Amino acid sequence: MAAVILVLWTGTGLTADPHTLPWKTLEDEAVSLLSRYIQIDTTNPPGNEIKAAQFFKEIFDREGIEARIIESAPGRGNIYARLKGTGAKKAVLLLNHMDVVPAEAQLWKEPPFSGVVKDGYLWGRGSLDMKGPAIAELMGLLALRRSNIPLKGDVIFLGTADEEAGGALGAGFLVEKHPELFKDVGLVLNEGGGIRLGNDGKVREYSVSVSEKTPLWLKLTATGVPGHGSTPGANLAVNKLVTALNRILQYRSPIKVVPEVQKYYADIAHLETPARQQQYRDLKTALEDPAFAAEFIKDPRNNGNVRNTIAITGMKGSDKVNVIPAFATAEIDVRLLPGEDPKAFIEDLRKVMADDSIEIEILLSFPPATSPPHPEAIKAITELAQTMDSGAPVFSPLVRGFTDCHFFRERGIPCFGFIPLRNASSTEGLVHGVDERVSVESLKAGAHALHEIVRKLVTDN
């Protein structure tokens, strides 16, 4: 006889009926699996995500869930698993990426690939971005499998390669070369949002991202006369590049309030002081006041919401200290607001540098894409907020980074950035940073909550 799951909600979290799913066991399993997963080094480059794909394939095989590994290049594996339903509802796809950014181990308090549990946290590169969320997705899927609840829609687990480098060998490869895998997908859940806590530890908002800034990664190359370091001339590549970069550092792109951003600040206005409420409800007008604008953009998150940003992330000259190089290069990470034209931005950048001899090469660029609506998903998330957190508000901020969501949004498939892990604003600096770690309790509760959302979307319960 199929088990029937009954979930009892409290104001602080979920409690499963003791006669149904053993959530304590599932939660402990989540911690153990994440610890093992973090120990698989998938630093990109080179990625080597095939090892992570094999890790998941072994789990799915044990559970009797159909799964396959799809390689886009040698060692660049993607894992695709599908839990079948009747097909009466469209499939829900749980998306995550398996690669992580490099970690400078000497700066960490705990080894970045140890997966150690200490002081209530699980430490390691990827614990937040996004191996921890992937395990929450995995446990949500396994809970559905083990409960034997009849499903009306399929649930798909997709772990991709190469997201941190743009996704060409991961989600981009899959949607282009294997579109049949996604023909019946009605919703994708991915990183980009979650349950945000205030400085007091209380839930501030449920953040569901439906749009993102788009990346424009550029390589600048200056050319000059090479020679010996002891006799520098006037036409030096490094000098030209440094001069141009200094002009870029002094540049501040114009402030613009796009509709997505205005809506977000209007939605959160009631959380602010009376004076700030009015300013947030008409942010464009408020930012015309120099005093308010200066205060507002002090916060890097606010600044990134209302202007195109430029970060100089790499420089290279000579490999020898006594050699003047013929070429000097720099890489810059530009993030464009929705609706911005990359070509127009590059032309503005040329004017800022005031040196037409510097070559500009586009390393990465893709069009902006906003998620089509999915009222049923918003309803499920809102109900989760109402029952778990006394009706915490559900907002849709503009994501300043980018995710694999755009590959699906460009094809008309709704992709929501929402994994229900609880994170304080202070943890944002840990993503791609030093001492990345996830709260053990957040991981456990996130797996349980994600299961509940997906269950509502693929069943009648």
Strand order of the largest sheet: 3-4-8-5-9-21
- Our Rg estimate from Cα atoms comes to 24 Å
| Largest β-sheet summary | 6 strands, mixed
Summarize the amount of helix as a percent range: 25-40%
| Count of alpha/pi helices | 14
Number of strands: 23
Arithmetic mean of pLDDT: 94
Shape: globular
First CA to last CA: what distance?
18 Å
Structural features:
single chain, 461 residues, alpha/beta, four-stranded mixed β-sheet, disordered N terminus
Folded structure, characterized:
By secondary structure, the chain is of the alpha/beta class. The chain has 14 helices and 23 strands. The chain has helices at residues 23-38, 50-63, 131-147, 171-177, 237-250, 259-268, 274-281, 283-286, 290-296, 300-306, 342-353, 375-388, 405-409, 440-458, and strands at 7-9, 14-16, 66-73, 76-83, 91-97, 117-118, 121-123, 155-160, 185-190, 194-197, 203-207, 211-212, 214-223, 227-228, 309-316, 323-324, 327-336, 359-365, 394-395, 398-399, 415-417, 422-424, 437-439. The strands form seven sheets. A six-stranded mixed beta sheet has the order 3-4-8-5-9-21, sandwiched between helices. Strands 19-11-10-22 form a four-stranded mixed beta sheet. Strands 15-17-13-18 form a four-stranded antiparallel beta sheet. β10 (194-197) and β11 (203-207) form a beta hairpin. The longest helix is centred in the last third of the chain and has 19 residues, at 440-458. The protein is globular.
